Amino acid sequence: MSNSSDFRKFSSPMLDGPDRAPSRAMLYAVGFKKDDFAKAQIGIASTWSEVTPCNVHIDKLAREASHGVNAAGGKALIFNTITISDGISMGTEGMKYSLVSREVIADSIETVVGCEGMDGFVAIGGCDKNMPGCVMAMARMNRPAVFVYGGTILPGCATIKGEEKDLDIVSVFEAVGKHAGGDFSDEDLDTVERCAIPGPGSCGGMYTANTMASAIEALGMSLPNSSAQTAIGEDKMRDCFDAGAAVLAMIQSGIKPRDIMTKEAFENAITVLIALGGSTNACLHIPAMAHAAGVEITLDDFARIGARVPVLADLKPSGKYGMADLVRIGGTVPLMKMLLEAGLLHGDCMTVTGRTMRENLEKWSHYPAGQQIIRPLDNPIKKDSHLRILRGNLAPEGAVAKISGKEGEVFRGKARVFDSEDLAMSAILARQIQKGDVIVIRMEGPKGGPGMREMLGPTSAVMGLGLGKDVALITDGRFSGGSHGFVVGHITPEAFTGGTIALLQDGDEIVIDAHTNRIDVLVEEAELASRRAAWKQPEPRYRYGVLAKYAKLVTSASEGAVTDKYL
């Protein structure tokens, strides 16, 4: 690679000249040779950790990305950031750190890349918070960068009650409900627990990890089909190697993340995740990534795009197939080709390949004939989006529902109010919830939790008890990508700030209507005003540490729950 300062815009001031001898001396100690100082310095941001199977293999992927950088004439430097495990912490106080970790990851990558004068970087993520965190850092730094998805897990399998079943993490959560309802014995539950997670990789349905990987690829920040590869295999290793080389090519051509992350590119990301039946968490992460890039994406954009984009993928949690099945038929690229040909994608958006979306897709084939995983546009699973943006007197600033249509599109029921996920979960497992109830879980928002826990435990328990079509669940918290059923999250304003959800009482009648996109409590305004006058904001749960800082800085869920908007 040329020694031109154009290729070393950030590392040159750090490493060049007699006065920078101390900097070079430090790097000799980590393995640099003299000629390495004349090369572009490319960071490899690794989210490797042994705390979760999603990321346990990423150290190997990071080393392969570094080989790609070095082979292309740059100098790679691997560094780590954190990750946490939603699947392990779900339903506990620890889960409050989950969404917080997205901000910590973005901050830490920005800190290392900025401090060390890196000219570009590859970031490798394997779970749903570290992926948007990586992309937020890319947008903030605006230095040539490529995101690599760590890859999906393969399905587990076991024989349950004489029937062989494919399993994943959601199978375990739903097995807890079946066990509580008496359908599963202790032995059945133990079998599911031991067999559901067979090795490395992210949760295997169209849950949040695969949703965000697909959205980031559609955004243009990953190489083609990075989002649809298994965690273990030659394709993923090649993806990492090629990503390292791609960053050097971006430096040579002058392409930077904000050239890629335009309004139209974010619209492409939303289009693809809707077609895949993706997670409600995208309604938090995409606005947050866009904010970092200086682009405004709101809940109204999801509603506008969702009115014309159908759900095409028959993928878990509400569908039949896993992500590994999609990988086998060609991944996400043929879907994007289909959407482009239908006029649903912006084809002129630039990508990290140095080519436009349309140019990337030209050489790819369509899905094989006879496959059942991705429906044709004229026979969709749902003719418009499953992600419904609801407003009404219960959520004047917006709420996000995940309604596939299988559970119906209108629900009317009586409120059962709980001031935490833990209290609601205890009532569900004790079989105190009846048909027609609307389970209300509040004080779980970004500020009130703090940290906006996911409600996979309660939604899975409801499903496991066979109440999925008979009970609704609403919350100012959020849902795992594995949640399904009649569920509404991200209710804003949240309870901690005095939103209407804070005023609900047991027995209040609630109407959720995905046709009119409304969520209302049928209580007279004068009564609500009286309750509001008597309401007092609770004391913050945390007074110091990262959760206290987060609660003080975080915006509402409808603004992406970012921490740097009003600084």
Q: Would you mind describing this structure in some detail?
A:
The chain is of the alpha/beta class and 567 residues long. The chain has helices spanning 12-15, 21-28, 58-71, 86-89, 98-115, 130-141, 169-180, 186-195, 208-219, 234-253, 257-260, 263-275, 282-292, 299-306, 323-328, 333-341, 357-362, 421-429, 456-464, 525-534, 546-553, and strands at 41-46, 75-80, 120-125, 145-149, 156-160, 163-167, 387-390, 398-402, 410-418, 437-441, 472-475, 486-492, 509-513, 518-521. The chain folds into 3 domains: 40-154 and 202-362, 3-Layer(aba) Sandwich (Rossmann fold); 156-195, no CATH class; 387-559, 3-Layer(bba) Sandwich (Glucose Oxidase, domain 1), CATH 3.50.30.80. It contains 21 helices and 14 strands. Strands 7-8-12-11-10-9-13-14 form an 8-stranded mixed β-sheet. Strands 2-1-3-4 form a 4-stranded parallel β-sheet, sandwiched between helices. A two-stranded antiparallel ribbon has the order 5-6. The mean pLDDT is 96. It is globular.
